[in-house]
Amino acid sequence: MIPDEREYGPQPLDSLMNERDMPNHTLVAASTEQLTHKMVSKARRGRFLSVQVRLKILRAWNKATQQNATLKDLFSY
């Protein structure tokens, strides 16, 4: 069986959120864009997301944590 090419495994985002005991809702609430719980859940699991969705998550992360992270800090693909 060929592994699914759209699954990248747990992402750095998941570890960072776990370290802070941060639920998905924190990012959804921090976002001023249409970011859903499902998008954040897929991002944490490592399901492939478009660049636009990853950027929404990045902006929400930076707003929620008052950091200046990059995509490479949150995603391994």
Describe the structure.
The chain is mainly alpha-helical and 77 residues long. It is 56% helix and 0% strand. It is built from five helices and no strands. Helix 2 crosses helix 4.
CATH architectural grouping: Orthogonal Bundle
Would you list the SSEs in sequence order as H and E?
HHHHH
Percent helix range: 55-70%
Domain unit count: 1
Distance between the termini: 22 Å
The top-level CATH class is Mainly Alpha
Report Rg: 12 Å
Q: What does the largest sheet look like?
A: none
Low-confidence stretches: none
What's the total helix number?
A: 5
Give the overall average pLDDT: 94
Structural class: mainly alpha
CATH domain fold name: 434 Repressor (Amino-terminal Domain)
- Which shape, going by the Cα principal axes? globular
Total DSSP E strands: 0
Describe the structure concisely.
This protein has 77 residues and is mainly alpha-helical. The protein contains 5 helices and no strands. Helix 2 (24-30) packs across helix 4 (51-65).
